[in-house]
């Protein structure tokens, strides 16, 4: 059997979300599995993907269709059929997203990933919900297995579509070589590199989408500032250009992110909806205190290693409990490391390919 993996979402310059999920699945695949992988790439990222994996995988195929475009419904089935005829092998098609093209050839099996159902739960108009729901139902019904990233997401999928037997929960991982507790000498050296950062600060990293709840994070910071008057608010999102307490970040790579997690007083993550919740888990892996909403998948993923708030109450109503918990000592880092160890990319990759090649 050969497994064709749709890698068009991989962008190593902005390697987060589905891009990182897909990249880590390929990177951490067992060597004997990589020899049976064919990667689909777009023109833009073909050279980067070839440099990363060309010597390890069976083949990398460049296709014209943009990721999640309508044209992929024609091009990808055609490519899969050609691969099947050329190799005479059974083909498994793995999509790192919910989307998968229509395939009628029974020698080609489909496997998809649903990270969350945010468009049904949170954003869409009734018309879009009907359209999206119909599409996802088709994708689920035509897949051998549906992979998802948390039990919370699994329950949502079952609620809308039933068919629990084919839904498999496999947690994403954390790169503990990148997101780790820095040594004192490393922090002192990096203070010079990132000299524009304040000595004391609270941190928000995310985007301005409604569910990320940036405005709540900022209001919570203003409440915290009464107790931490010297602390600034470091963020890659802002809506008030004149606020001198906000330190604005334009570009963030993993090295800077690790330093921010290590140095912040706390990482604020009052998200209203997550299928998983990788940023607060990365922060915990770096030894940060995390203030997170008690919503969606976050309690499942973060366990006892976060300070939870009710984001349906005002920051003012939460502040005294938050302050009390912030003043408590951090757990031993060995305890955190043991907890974090269950989230690793090797396990994710191995389990996915075990299901596909079984």
Automatic annotation (TrEMBL):
Any one GO biological process: lipopolysaccharide biosynthetic process
GO MF terms, alphabetically ordered: glycosyltransferase activity
A Pfam family reported for this protein in Swiss-Prot or TrEMBL: Glycos_transf_1
Record keywords: Transferase
Domain Glycosyl transferase family residue range list: 198-306
InterPro entries in alphabetical order: Glyco_trans_1, Glyco_trans_4-like_N
Domain (Glycosyltransferase subfamily 4-like N-terminal) ranges: 17-177
Official protein name in the record: Glycosyl transferase group 1
Organism name: Caldicellulosiruptor hydrothermalis (strain DSM 18901 / VKM B-2411 / 108)
């Amino acid at each position: 059997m050969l497994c064709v993996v749709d890698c068009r979402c991989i962008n190593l310059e902005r390697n987060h979300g589905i891009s990182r999920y897909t990249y880590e699945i390929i990177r951490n695949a067992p060597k004997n599995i990589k020899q049976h992988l064919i990667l689909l790439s777009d023109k833009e990222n073909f050279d980067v993907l070839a440099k990363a994996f060309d010597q390890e995988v069976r083949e990398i195929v460049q296709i014209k269709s943009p990721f999640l475009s309508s044209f992929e419904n024609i091009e990808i089935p055609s490519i899969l059929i050609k691969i099947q005829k050329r190799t005479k092998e059974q083909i498994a098609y793995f999509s790192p997203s919910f989307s998968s093209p229509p395939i009628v050839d029974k020698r080609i099996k489909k496997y998809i990933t649903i990270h969350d159902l945010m468009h049904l739960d949170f954003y869409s108009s009734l018309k879009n919900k009907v359209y999206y729901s119909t599409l996802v139902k088709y994708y689920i019904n035509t897949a051998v297995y549906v992979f998802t990233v948390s039990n919370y997401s699994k329950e949502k999928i079952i609620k809308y579509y039933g068919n629990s037997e084919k839904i498999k929960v496999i947690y994403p991982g954390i790169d503990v070589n990148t997101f780790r507790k820095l040594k004192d000498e490393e922090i002192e050296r990096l203070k010079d590199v990132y000299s524009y950062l304040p000595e004391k600060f609270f941190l928000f990293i995310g985007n301005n989408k409604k569910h990320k709840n940036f405005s709540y994070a900022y209001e919570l910071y203003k409440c915290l500032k009464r107790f931490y008057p010297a602390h600034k608010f470091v963020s890659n999102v802002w809506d008030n250009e004149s606020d001198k307490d906000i330190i604005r970040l334009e570009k963030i790579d993993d090295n800077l992110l690790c330093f921010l997690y290590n140095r912040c007083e706390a990482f604020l993550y009052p998200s209203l909806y997550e299928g998983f919740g990788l940023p607060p888990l990365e922060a915990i892996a770096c030894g940060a205190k995390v203030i997170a909403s008690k919503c969606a998948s976050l309690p499942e993923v973060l366990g006892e290693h976060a300070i939870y708030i009710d984001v349906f109450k005002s920051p003012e109503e939460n502040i005294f409990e938050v302050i009390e918990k912030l003043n408590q000592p951090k757990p031993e880092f060995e305890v955190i490391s043991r907890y974090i160890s269950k989230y690793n990319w090797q396990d994710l990759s191995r389990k996915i390919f075990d299901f596909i090649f079984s």
